[in-house]
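Example 9 (inverse folding). The structure is encoded as follows.
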């Protein structure tokens, strides 16, 4: 599954997150795990998947995919779900994704769903089985990703990109809002100017207040749906939508999402950053 040896691995960009040094002579041996954890985690995944399928079937449209968000969780948890048949996982931190990709099976499709810095585009693009970046929020980053993928992994599939839209108008959140910037990004991703990144869809994170308020409609999700309609009409596309997490995924499904991103409801409460370990 994994071909190269790693003598020692230490997190550098997240010094308080992972302090353990891992010593390995081979990466071909499967990561072991506890049978009780295996049973509970598999059962919880199936429970969440069943709820999503029920909601999805009720709206009588295309199935909704479930992205298991494994940030700050050990590699053994991912191995458990991999052995359970899951192949797509979401990570929020570049270095964590890079290290987990080294340790875990190469046919996993990794989704990056955290804030992306321009100087980290190269590190992500080097991961051969990086399938999606769901938080692309600048044309500069799109071009950096395209360049780096071409330099380091030219034989791998193009990275599918979701443009992050700030639908809640919160200053602390990333994402585009300006129509000209959004259309410019779409135009680049669908053009022949690049070979190594491609447009997949749109992504948003709803505001906490809206996501935790019961109602007929989530206005942040409605805004993303409106952007989809504008883009599909202008570019003749059919972009997917990534919206909805543990607190609001049922409403996201009702409003037309293509994917929901679930972490806590599957893996349980995350540990503090200074206590999180990969192994």
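The amino acid assigned to each position is listed next.
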């Amino acid at each position: 599954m994994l071909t190269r040896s790693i003598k020692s691995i230490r997190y550098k960009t997240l010094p308080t997150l992972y302090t353990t040094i891992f010593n390995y002579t081979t990466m071909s041996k499967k990561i072991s795990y506890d049978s009780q954890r295996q049973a509970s985690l598999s059962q919880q995944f199936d429970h969440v998947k069943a709820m999503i399928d029920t909601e999805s079937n009720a709206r009588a449209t295309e199935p909704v995919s479930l992205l298991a968000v494994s940030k700050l969780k050990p590699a053994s948890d991912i191995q458990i779900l991999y052995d359970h048949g899951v192949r797509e996982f979401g990570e929020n931190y570049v270095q964590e994704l890079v290290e987990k990709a080294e340790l875990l099976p190469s046919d996993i499709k990794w989704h990056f769903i955290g804030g992306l810095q321009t100087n980290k585009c190269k590190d992500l693009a080097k991961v051969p089985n990086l399938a999606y970046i769901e938080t692309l929020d600048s044309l500069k980053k799109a071009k950096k990703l395209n360049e780096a993928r071409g330099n380091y992994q030219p034989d791998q599939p193009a990275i599918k990109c979701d443009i992050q839209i700030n639908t809640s108008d919160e200053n602390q959140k990333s994402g585009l809002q300006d129509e000209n910037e959004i259309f410019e990004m779409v135009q680049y991703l669908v053009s022949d100017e690049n070979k190594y990144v491609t447009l997949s869809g749109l992504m948003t994170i709803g505001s906490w207040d809206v996501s935790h308020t019961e109602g007929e409609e989530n206005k942040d999700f409605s805004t993303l749906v409106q952007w989809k309609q504008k883009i599909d009409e202008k570019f003749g596309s059919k972009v997917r939508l990534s919206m909805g997490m543990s607190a609001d995924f049922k409403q996201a499904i009702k409003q037309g999402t293509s994917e929901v991103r679930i972490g806590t409801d599957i893996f349980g409460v995350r540990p503090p950053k200074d206590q999180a370990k990969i192994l």
